[in-house]
Amino acid sequence: IITNCILWGNTPSQVSETATVMYSCVQGGFSGDGNISDDPAFVDAMSGNLRLQSGSPCCDTGNNASVPAGVTTDLDGHPRILNGIVDMGAYEFIPFDFDLDGDVDLADFSFFQVCFNGPNRPPTAACAADADFDDDGDVDLSDFSIFAQCFNGPNRAPRCP
């Protein structure tokens, strides 16, 4: 039984047809509850960084009931379930981790600060996608308030709600 996994860079014939695959991302597709076949949007698969980028179709699409009892962290030691639903794959996507290093620290704040432009002012395209957390068309104090909930410093698991 394969659940909450990403099978990418393999061919479908490498997954046994007798396997039960659910809530997983399988390149080329595989029948089963909750399965998808979209590109998982890894940070850098060529260098082995299989963390998910913002907007990955694997974020918040797993099955919480399939997380084994006692498993509370991902491979980085961060909470296994953030935002209420487990991600597919071995790593939870950490919102606000702009530099994708597994924590929310001053480097991430530096990115957010560049995007901060105040109320009723449209941000740049990159900032709109990544820093307008409340989707109201600007990057302002409301977005900072959301960002601050995850800020926890270097090399520490974020404390996202």
What does this entry look like structurally?
The protein has helices spanning 106-115, 125-130, 141-148; strands at 2-3, 6-7, 21-22, 25-26, 42-44, 49-52. The model has no long low-confidence stretch (mean pLDDT 87). By secondary structure, the chain is largely without helices or strands. It contains three helices and six strands.
Strand content: 5-15%
Order the strands across the largest sheet as they lie in space.
Answer: 1-3
Number of helices: 3
The poorly predicted ranges are none
Task: Identify the overall geometry.
Answer: elongated
User: How many β-strands, per DSSP?
Assistant: 6
Q: Main β-sheet: number of strands, strand sense, barrel status? A: 2 strands, parallel
Sheet/helix structural class: little secondary structure
End-to-end separation in angstroms reads 30 Å
* Helical fraction: 10-25%
Gyration radius (Cα, Å) is 17 Å
Mean pLDDT: 87
Series of secondary-structure elements, N-terminal to C-terminal? EEEEEEHHH
